[in-house]
Design brief:
Helix content: 40-55%
CATH class of the largest domain: Alpha Beta
Strand order of the largest sheet: 5-4-1-6-7
Number of domains: 2
Oligomer: single chain
Number of helices: 8
């Protein structure tokens, strides 16, 4: 529950709280194949990971014809590869250490289903006071919309907000808010 007297700590999901490279790669690889899409792990990590699906899936498929079908398939396949995820235990320890003074919020371009599948898998469903996912945000990172929306909901000023991010687009979005930004380099 949001306490408007507290400061705000915002955490990204993919690459920050969890190393989801493998789960996302295998789910997307399997999701694009029925539509003639082929994706290598190297390509996925270099060109796709951390970007919104509406940006990179059309590049793989050569158009947008099956975009939403691929997206729905990927969401369903995600749980199949959950054992490939690595949790950032250190960052979850930080969350527990600052909980008394900060609202704990997640802002992600991941889908609500995939976020809750992951949190449930690791028994972390009650960690966040607020989660803003792909369904809550019109303009994905590098647009700061998601972070600004979290700040607005929590009535937090930039100087009372810290954002934990890992990707270039996420860092650009975080920086555009005027909040304090901490770059996370997650080493498994």
């Amino acid at each position: 529950m949001i306490n408007k007297e507290k400061k705000l700590a915002i955490f990204d999901f993919d690459g920050t709280l969890f190393n989801t490279e493998e789960v996302n790669y295998y789910a997307y690889k399997e999701a694009v194949e029925p539509f003639g899409g082929v994706i290598t792990k190297e390509y996925f990590l270099e060109k796709c990971y951390g970007r919104h699906y509406k940006t990179f899936v059309p590049e793989i498929l050569g158009g947008i014809e099956h975009l939403e079908e691929v997206h729905e398939a990927k969401k369903k396949l995600y749980a199949k590869y959950m054992d490939k995820v690595i949790i950032n235990r250190h960052l979850f320890d930080v969350i527990e250490g600052i909980r008394d003074k900060y609202n704990i919020v997640m802002v992600t371009t991941a889908t609500r289903k995939n976020v809750f599948d992951m949190l449930t898998y690791f028994g972390l469903e009650e960690t966040f006071d607020l989660i803003l996912s792909q369904e809550d945000i019109v303009n994905p990172k590098p647009d700061p919309e998601g972070f600004l929306k979290a700040m607005e909901i929590c009535e937090a000023k930039p100087q009372d907000t810290v954002i934990y991010e890992d990707s270039d687009v996420g860092l650009a979005a975080a920086g555009a808010t005027g909040a304090n930004v901490i770059k996370v380099e997650f080493i498994a």
